[in-house]
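Field guide to reading this record: the first block holds the primary sequence, the second block holds the structure written as discrete tokens, and the final block holds curator observations. Each block starts with its own label. This record concerns ABC transporter permease, catalogued under organism Streptomyces cinnamoneus.

BLOCK 1 — SEQUENCE
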Amino acid sequence: MKPVKALRTRGGLSVRLDARAALVVTLLVAAALAASVALIGTGDYPMSFADVLRTLTGGGTAAQEFIVHDLRLPRVLVALLVGAALALAGAVFQSVSRNPLGSPDVIGLAQGSTAGALLVIVLFQGGTTAVAAGSVGGGILSGAAIYALAWKKGVHGYRFVLVGIAMAAILTAVIGYLLTKANLTDAARATTWMVGSLNGRDWDQVWPLAAACTVLVPLVLGHSRSLRMLEMGDDAAYALGVPVERTRLVTMAAAVLLTSAATAAAGPIAFVALAAPQLARRLTRSTGPNLTAAACTGATLLVTADWASQQLFGADRLPVGALTGMLGGCYLLGLLYTERRGGRI
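BLOCK 2 — STRUCTURE
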């Protein structure tokens, strides 16, 4: 039996608390904060753990204040927000599709955001803001197209994933075509953006992403129970009073926007959305989407991967998207092997 506690308030309101899930979330938050401090202290001007903490609390020198608050803290905040947003989006899609492969990386949303950004870079030579807007627009349009093509008296999970895989293939071809039409400078810029990187991120990327997460994260978390019911099947969810199609549409729209905002801020960071929800499920040993744990896992994964890439390869030499892509590819092979042995694919 799982350790689940019931907390009762004075007003008679009863709240169920999964002790293991709460412990996992607490440890993940602590790990994310520790990795964040370590990442802030990493670079051409190294700082100790104590120096970083002292600077964050207003006790550093003028040079340390500039390095931490102007150069490194925005990068860390983008890493945390992007990781949480991608993981939360992945948890929603995996829950809605009832398929561990239901991830923005697999079903074409990341490719849609990339195609939108490349369209702005290649055809219009747009700046940072225009590229971000193109990324968001591409993600929204691809999400709407996948939902419309997968619709047939509702959205069935496997049909949704298959349509998404087909859309990803089409968009990958579009991305290749755009790269062939670009001049050398734009092609190099587009290729760099496509890798997915946290290098050079500043407050201009933090605030829009933070605003999107402030609105969308509570919206998704508020549908946690409904998503849990959806995993039992549409008929069971209907019987339990869940408005199935409305829940599916609202949560998927929020997940598309989270993916698009994260991609606009850091480029297409691979496999965080695929791996984080599954890792969270295994850590908590809980059924359902485990949204809070998934978000914390994604934030911890990305900030730790960025720190590891700098420790292993030197400051800003390996974009974090390349590292997560390599690790995520290995994870995907393991996941496919597990699903095949279980007879699910």
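BLOCK 3 — OBSERVATIONS
The beta strands are 4-8, 14-18.
The chain is about 75% helix and 5% strand.
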